[in-house]
Amino acid sequence: MNTSPTIHSIEAILVDLPTIRAHKLAMTTMMRQTLVIVRLVCSDGLTGIGEATTIGGLAYGDQSPESIKSAIDTYLAPLLVGTDATRVNVAMQRVAASVQGNSFAKSAVEIALLDVQGQRLGLPVHALLGGAMRSALPVLWTLASGDATRDVDEALALIEARRHKVFKLKIGSHPLAEDIAHVQAIRRGLGDEVMLTVDVNQAWDETTAVQGIAALEAIGVSLIEQPVARRNRRALKRLAARFDVAIMADEAVHDAIDAFDLATDAAADVYALKISQAGGLWPTLRAAAVADAAGVGIYGGTLLEGSIGSIAAAHVFAASPTLAWGTELFGPLLLKDDIVVQRPEYRDFELQLPQVPGLGVQLDLDKLAYYRRDRASQAVAVTA
Ligand SMILES: O=C(O)C[C@H]1C=CC(=O)O1
Ligand SMILES: [Mn+2]
């Protein structure tokens, strides 16, 4: 007889949190972030938590917080409730057999399953993934206030506080000359020693990219992220072949299959891997393995997850055998408030990896009640 604990319930909750400042990307300006929080309760009384986020609703990709919640409530939860809670691979294969796409919903649920399994076994999630290669992860910061003077002040304060020493600039929403002047102003303000990268978020056509990358190389930018449209892989390949500066695929690389296709074409020097675009922690490691095999550098990307999603990603990138380009797991720091008891710890330019069983993050239930989008209907339910 199988006596393994089973999945008792899976709940997906939308939570809206304000950001500390406007965050400007080529396709949207964020003033808040929506977290889809998953709570997965098991028959042995343990609860796992997971999270998925998007950027600007549907502005960045084709899954929204609302569609993630709907996929979990309507499809993933009914498939999993009553099944073995301890066999994460079997559970996710069951989901894969009946649910196409929806990588964000899959990722949020897989995180919760790994969290609860880690608690059950007394092991941190990174141990379930094969063990951590590093106990802390370098984290860059994105300068995206839209104002160069403010960006320089922000970066200098962060270097002084020993929180970040590498900075990513969001460009692509202005004419090229303006964007280049913006990067130049920040380079002047920070000096030649500070490592700068840029993210174009697909905004350029190939002709603009050729001019733009040449100018950015001259300014001493170290990495150019997704300069052209996600689906324009041939242009990405030509740019990677043409320039010495590292070209990173972000929106173009979701999972191991994308990683393989891009590697076959030598279309990028580095991949930004993101847990929700890959479809979970294991799928991210599988994409990382392809990158490793192809000699492509790995960068721990973010979709500006909150504390739960960022720590889940930290467990993966800590377990990845290589991580040549560090991470951008700063999402929790962009949020004015949080829904966890203890926020992730950033120290000496690095995010510290939790070493306790599971993810090592606990929900603050009062804060969750306050920030959840359906709080009005919840209050009615409590008083009724
Ligand atoms: O990289 C992206 O495209 C998304 C995201 C990550 C950091 C940031 O500021 O935006
Ligand atoms: Mn990017």
TrEMBL record:
Cofactor(s) essential for the protein: Mn(2+)
One Pfam match: MR_MLE_N
Signal peptide segment: none
Pathway: Aromatic compound metabolism
Mandelate racemase/muconate lactonizing enzyme C-terminal domain boundaries: 148-246
Superkingdom to which the source organism belongs: Bacteria
UniProtKB keywords: Aromatic hydrocarbons catabolism, Isomerase, Manganese, Metal-binding
Database matches in InterPro entries: Chloromuconate_cycloisomerase, Enolase-like_C_sf, Enolase-like_N, Enolase_C-like, Mandel_Rmase/mucon_lact_enz_CS, Mandelate_racemase_C, Mandelate_racemase_N_dom
PANTHER family with a match to the protein in the record: O-SUCCINYLBENZOATE SYNTHASE, O-SUCCINYLBENZOATE SYNTHASE-RELATED
Family per record: Belongs to the mandelate racemase/muconate lactonizing enzyme family.
Name this polypeptide is given: Muconate/chloromuconate family cycloisomerase
